[in-house]
Design goal:
8 helices, Nuclear Transport Factor 2, Chain: A, single chain, 5-stranded antiparallel sheet, alpha+beta
Length: 419
């Protein structure tokens, strides 16, 4: 048992290592008596990861902490950390005294924050704790990367081979998603260059910051992105001429693994019904559970079961557009009629509900109430808004600096793939 043989208040105080400083002296006790109290030696520490479906209370109970200790620790978190935000597979540590009393609890909230709960001096037998969220220091440096898409390659695969992870690929998709469908548009021979922030902590990788500049050659098109901030201080990316890369619609509601398995058609052979009939969307083959994102900002006007479409979400957008996402395995609780969503918000998961032969997403676009070919319609979407004239000179300086840094970093790498 972690909490054992605490016979009296004095023993508990001794285990906590209470000194005279910062404590009032109760009646009948002298400062000399308090100064004689010594810290109990450190006991064992347990390093582990949060199991699935655990709450903070059940996590502490599995280490045989008393209900009194658990309750006191949870109360100390009020206003500091919401226990409901505990996430599976995150690291934590429990440290105890040699007497088995909880000395410290640490929980890795994310790559940058640590929850730290420490037992504090108390003249009462009941345990008392203080809690804080600590920002972990890290070093951020600019780094560069060049790559080329080979036959059968995906962007994630190329980055993985270069020692990077999919977060960098997702960041690229978020930047160029209005111009390129990373599910289907990448071709062998496409090339890219990136200037990005790499964070390290104690020499270990700690995540990516912003992509400061990027060049992507896709099917002969040269696309460039330069990072800057909008008037609200939020990160945005513009092309070399100062035109926003953000579009009303992203090219795909999915990530990288899916592929187009069936296009828009007014006379397609239906694999279930065995007859020719209209297919008013684009099918993306994807594993069950793949996340589906809102293609554009708007208001949900339907979320639920819809016959052969299975679980479906339909969103109303500006300009007379609606998008529909069919055959979902599940829909998040917050996605309901009347809910506002932003572009790239999670709205569901790929499934095979309704009439379907296997997991896939049937993605549809309606314009003024009529179904249109999603692939063709997305290609016709207008370019992003240009920077205001009074902001352009400052942006051009940022652009020139970023592109110079990119060129210099890549020169150090010793290769530049013909961009």
């Amino acid at each position: 048992m972690l909490h054992s043989r605490v016979v009296a208040a004095v023993a508990a105080i001794a285990a906590l290592g209470v000194g005279a400083a910062g404590c009032s002296v109760p009646a009948g006790r002298s400062e000399t008596a308090l100064q004689d109290i010594r810290l109990a030696p450190d006991g064992p520490s347990i390093d582990a990861r949060v199991p699935k479906n655990a709450t903070l209370e059940t996590l502490l109970q599995r280490h045989e902490l008393s209900a009194e200790t658990t309750g006191s620790l949870l109360r100390a978190l009020t206003g500091v950390f919401n226990p409901r935000q505990l996430r599976a597979n995150q690291a934590y540590r429990i440290s105890t005294t040699i007497d088995g009393l909880l000395r410290e609890f640490r929980y890795q909230i994310d790559a940058d924050r640590l929850l730290r709960v420490i037992r504090r001096p108390s003249m009462d037998a009941a345990p008392a704790f203080s809690a804080e969220v600590v920002t972990l220091p890290k070093t951020v440096e600019l780094d560069a990367l060049v790559g080329e898409i080979g036959r059968g390659d995906s962007l994630i695969g190329v980055l993985d081979a270069a020692g990077e992870n999919e977060q960098l690929a997702l960041a690229m998709a978020a930047i160029f998603g209005g111009e390129v469908d990373f599910n289907s548009d990448l071709q062998p021979g496409d090339k890219f260059e990136l200037l990005f922030e790499r964070a390290t902590r104690d020499g270990e990788f700690a995540g990516y910051g912003d992509i400061k500049a990027a060049v992507l050659v896709n099917g002969g098109r040269r696309l460039t992105a330069v990072w800057t901030e909008d008037s609200d201080g939020k990160p945005v990316w513009y092309d070399v001429d100062g035109r926003s890369l953000k579009r009303q619609f992203r090219k795909s509601p999915l990530g990288f693994d899916p592929r187009i398995t069936s296009g828009f058609s007014m006379n397609r052979f239906h694999p279930v019904h065995g007859t020719y009939r209209a297919h008013l969307g684009v099918d993306y083959g994807a594993p069950a559970g793949t996340r589906v994102f809102a293609s554009a900002s708007g208001v949900v006007d339907f979320a639920g079961w819809n016959g052969e479409a299975g679980r479906m979400v339909r969103i109303r957008h500006a300009g007379g557009y609606q998008t529909a996402y069919l055959h979902l395995s599940s829909i998040p609780a917050g996605i309901r009629p009347g809910a506002r969503v932003s572009q790239d918000d999670l709205i569901g998961y790929v499934g095979s509900t309704g009439t379907a032969t296997g997991p896939h997403l049937d993605f549809r676009i309606l314009k003024n109430g009529k179904y249109v070919n999603p692939t063709a319609e997305l290609k016709r979407m207008p370019k992003g808004e240009p920077l205001a004239a009074d902001r352009l000179p400052a942006f051009l300086k940022v652009r020139d600096d970023a592109m110079s840094q990119l060129a210099a970093k890549i020169a150090v790498l010793g290769r530049r793939p013909g961009l």
